[in-house]
Amino acid sequence: MRAARILKVVLLVAGITALMSFFVLRLWNWLMPEVFGLHLITFGQALGLLVLSKILFSGFRGFRGGFGPRMWQRRMMERWEKMTPEEREKFRQGLAGRCGPFASPSAEPKS
What we know:
Largest sheet: none
Low-confidence stretches: none
Number of strands: 0
Distance between the termini: 56 Å
Shape: flat
Strand content: under 5%
Structural class: mainly alpha
Mean pLDDT: 83
C-alpha cells in the first residue's frame, strides 16, 4: 500500500516535471530565437534550465521549498512574539520613520 502511494507521487512529480520542461521548450523555441537570435533547445536542455533556475532562484529547501513561510519570516515572527509591548511599539515607530505609517496586524481598518 505504501509502495503504491510512493510510486504515484514519483510518477506525479515526473509528469509535472516533464510537462513544465515541455512548456519551457516550447516557449524558448518560440520566443528566444526570434527575439534574441538564440538557438533552439532540446527537451533535455529545457529540463536543465528548469533545474538551474530552481538552484539559482529558490535553492533546495526540502520538499516545501516554494510553499509556506520562508525562514526569515519564521524568525521574524519568533522575534515578534518574544518582544514586549514597548519593544513592539519602538519597532513600529522605526518602521514608520523609514516606510510610512504602520498599523498593528490586529488593528481594525479605518472606514
